[in-house]
Amino acid sequence: MDPNIKLLADELHKRFDDLDLKWEQRLLDAELRLGARIDNLGERHQVRIDGLEAQHGERLNLVDSLLVYQGDRIDRAHNLSALHDERLSRLEGAALAFDDWCPRLEALIDDIKWEMHKCASAGERLAAERPSSGRGILPLPKSALERPPAPNYYADGPNGHYLPPHNRDDGFGLVFTISHHPVKGAYNPPYPPPPPPPNLVTARWSSPQFGAGSSGKLPKLQFPSFDGDNPKLWVSRCEDYFDLYHVDPQLWVRVAAMHFSGAAARWSMSVESRLRSASWSQFGQLLLERFGRNQQEQLIRQLYRFSQTGSVQDYIDSFVSLVDQLVAYGPNTDPLYYTTRFIDGLRPDIRAAVLIQRPKDLDSACTLALLQEEVSAQASRREFRKTDPGGGWKPAVRGPSPLPLPPGVDKQVPTAADKTSPEQVRSNADKFSALRAYRRAKGLCDRCAEKWHPGHRCAASIQLHVVEELFELFQQDEAVSPPSSPPHSSEHVCLALSAAAVSGSASARTLKLIGFLQSRQLKILVDSSSSSSFLGETIARDLSGVSQLVQPVAVQVANGAQIWCDSVIPNAVWSVHNYEFTTDLRIIPLQHYDLIVGMDWLESFSPMNVHWRHKWMQIPYQGSVVLIQGEDAVPPAKVLVQVCNATWEQQLSSVSNSVPPEISALLSEYTPLFAPVDGLPLVRGCEHSIPLIPGAKPVSVRPYRYPPALKTEIEQQVQDLLSKGLIQPSSSPFSSPMLLVKKKDGSWRPVVDYRYLNALTIRGKFPIPVFDELMDELAGSSWFSSLDLNSGFHQIRLKPGEEPKTAFQTHFGHYEFRVMSFGLCGAPGTFQGAMNTTLQPLLRKCVLVFFDDILIYSKSYDEHVRDIRAVLELLSKDKWQIKLSKCSFAQRQLAYLGHVISAEGISTDQSKVDAVSAWPVPTNAKELRGFLGLAGYYRKFVRHFAILARPLSDLLKKHALFIWTPDHQAAFDALKMALSSAPVLAMPDFSRPFCIETDACNSGVGAVLLQQGHPLAYISKPLEPVWSTAIVQGYSSDPHALDLITRLSVDPSSVPHFSLSGGLLRYKGLPLSSGKNCILVVVDKFTKYGHFIALAHPFTAASVATVFFDHIYRLHGLPESIVSDRDRVFTAHFWKELFRLAGVSLRMSSSYHPQTDGQTERVNQCLETFLRCYIHACPSRWSKWLGSAEYWYNTSFHSAIGRSPFEALYGYSPRSLGVSSNDVREHPDLSDWLKDKELMNRLL
């Protein structure tokens, strides 16, 4: 090698070695510096963490102290509130008692004082009179010349006359006093009343002066005391006393104050300084201001609220007492005011009679009220009549007859004086004999009516029921015939009521129906023998719109009696078979029917076709003829065929007269389609089968119990089915019960309860049409017709061999169907498939089928006639039978499946909307669910339906309490308003574009489907919490947002639940496992048995109490005492009050001293050790190991009790599972589960 190159290579090697040494030194220095910086940072972080932990501990201590202080304050507040409520309730009760007691006591005291005053006045008058014999009771007063001179202070008057020794004037002129009418209780107020003088007393009277100069002797009088009650009367009594005894006016205040007691005495002490310098008039004003404030207002309020609650006499006495007190304050009050208030407070029946008389004063009103009460009492004893010998019901006169009208008023109302006595009345001896015979037959004593036995002795006093029996016995035959209307009455014998309407018996010219009036179901009788329409008064009480007649009207009953009608519901709207009618309904007492429809209604629909024997009628209704079918009996089989033929021929003739000629001719051409169902239907290849699951055993269910009225209906229905050949007697081992379901037209449909059979049936999957999809086919149509099959299910036969499965039982036999019956789970699919097969060529062209409801739609009238012909041709080909009474032809607007369809679109059925509007406020979840179900049927018509109904839907959630609040009422009313104003939805045209408008808010989302600006449907949905979470998650998955989050520096000390200690990252508490993050540990003090219950924080005292009762109480009952720490749950008022009422003693451990409850803390250590050992690899699954931990602890040997807690509690050791996964061959899930258990047992 070239020496130069070698030297150069050596030089390079040397330089490289130097560089390596330098870099190694630099790296070593960098590592040292980095290590020092890391140590420095670790120490700084540790110091910071320690400081934060110390601050956190101090804050926790402060929070605990605040919680304890807050709990004490809350307890004190609760105690104070309870004490306040208790005192308030006592004060309210005392106030009510005082308000009730004070007026009565005042009236009593005033009456006593008034009587005493009258006695004193009488004594004074007797003393002042001169007897005719020359000698009086008292000596004659001396003349003026013989009287001794008056004291100096009396001689200051003009001309030697003394001034009055008081500050009041003597009473001169007329003296008005309260006088009473001779009629007891009546009051005649004094009018015209005198003007009130300016002094405290409204009237004074002159009395002879007794004293030193008087020749008479003054009787000893007691000075009146005052306790704060009625200061006006007390002041008047004091002045009378001072006048009689000539007390110095300067001493009046002091003398009067000496006789204060009670509240008045306490008040006088507080105003003693003012009373010393007060004059008598000032003293009286002070008394009135203190003890008489608002007394007149209270009396006026009592008068305004005063009304009769007992007899008229009691009402008069109380009213007059109240008026007497008011007159003392305002004698100028118009007497007409008191008269009007008196009449307004009377009972309604008495008030009406008194008002008719128009009394001029209070005295007349009192007299009329007393007389009317007497008349009412006499009439009420005749209100209830006994049944006549013929068994017919004898109506009574409704209510008492009013008093005679005053002069000048036409007498058009019958009076009590028109009544006549009965022709025959039994003697008293016969009545007593009948009473004794009746009692002996009942085994009663014939004297006292008590239970008779040997040694029986009658009571010394007469029992009340004996008097009542005698009264009834004497009154039962004293029924007076009702008054007859005067000859000049405008409605004399104009109204009539038939015997069938009164007695409820069957009649040849009546028709029974079921209808509705103001959402109330009615039992209706169409009666051609009754002149007018009548409504029972029992039903009328709950209805609105009742008005009183100006003059009562007499109703003549067929048995000769009369009933008086005094009220009516004008233009009442009632419905039958969904047809509405308007009639004036007069209200009378009815027993057997709710509504009698008479000739006034029948004449308004004449001419009509009526078949009284078979109980149906055809009437003109809104341009068409409708059939109303009654509920009466079914004729025998042979006659039934002839009658049915005549019936449907008449129906066909009537319908033909009400439709256009083209359709009438078409119906006549297909007459056999409208014939009644008779015999078995045609075999069409769509027979119904009932496939059962393999191994199914025959179903046998006992028949239900029926009321007697339905038993007759069931017998008739079964006899009808037998006569038609639709059922046959059976000996099948299958048996299901039969029941009746009422149709819309009021007739009954026999239905068999096949629920047990359906549970064993393999269900088919034939698609059932959806209403919205059906309506989508009607775009552009303007003519509509509907057909309804006659008992459509019974027009499909059963497959041979399936008949025994349909067997049913009644109370009198065992039968089976030969045709498809109602109630079978696969019947709707079979029927829909049969109809689709028959009308397949026309489906979605001009025909829609929803079970037995067939809709024919067309764009023009000529096309509609052709479509009807095509549909009738297909139905005639397969021999289907149509019920003509339920068909409608060539209509521009038609009701179909709860909706009204027309060329303009689809709208709601008004009858359904009325039912929603009349729905009462729900009181429970079931009623609310029914309302939402009915309203939800029209949800596509209501904008934001789900948002409006959200408050109501929340009440139906699981575990939700049903508490009706104003928010729920507002939502309830909003839904009703929205449905009542629902728009008409247009038909969709799929050849044109659609438009969707959406909307959203915090509570929900909504949308509307539009076409050319017309709404087609509304949809809405409330926002659930999971939707909000999905929105948040959607934003959190944004990559740009995630990139920004990763750039943020996180302070290690701000990460919750984690701490760095000794180089180890520690987690405080338990990780979340199946939604749980803490454990409730309960240990028995005696047996050491423990329970470990997973909880989710945060929790409340109520939730912990629920867990305690679900896991501890159900196994061990209530403990005598509970030792716990001072967690806010155990110091809560809920927890303390619950166990205080349960009789459990609560003991709290000392703060910051866990050794107080050392047993539980020791069990916590065992549990923590177990979880650390066995779930360190999967810490989030600790909740699944909690049961194993509890089993391990309770079955382990405990040194304190010398055995396991399980054995100490139950007395025996538990058995092991003893099953291995190797024993399982056919169930892999069971094998996996056993392997997990074996793994856990090996770990244990």
UniProtKB/TrEMBL annotation:
Residues 128-161, 380-426 are annotated as: Disordered. Keywords: Endonuclease, Hydrolase, Multifunctional enzyme, Nuclease, Nucleotidyltransferase, Transferase. GO terms for molecular function: endonuclease activity; nucleic acid binding; nucleotidyltransferase activity. Residues 1035-1213 form the Integrase catalytic domain. CDD domains: retropepsin_like (cd00303), RT_LTR (cd01647). Residues 722-901 form the Reverse transcriptase domain. GO terms for biological process: DNA integration. InterPro entries: DNA/RNA_pol_sf (IPR043502), Integrase_cat-core (IPR001584), Peptidase_aspartic_dom_sf (IPR021109), Retrotrans_gag_dom (IPR005162), Retrovirus_Pol_polyprotein (IPR050951), Rev_trsase/Diguanyl_cyclase (IPR043128), RNaseH-like_sf (IPR012337), RNaseH_sf (IPR036397). This is Uncharacterized protein. It comes from Paspalum notatum var. saurae.
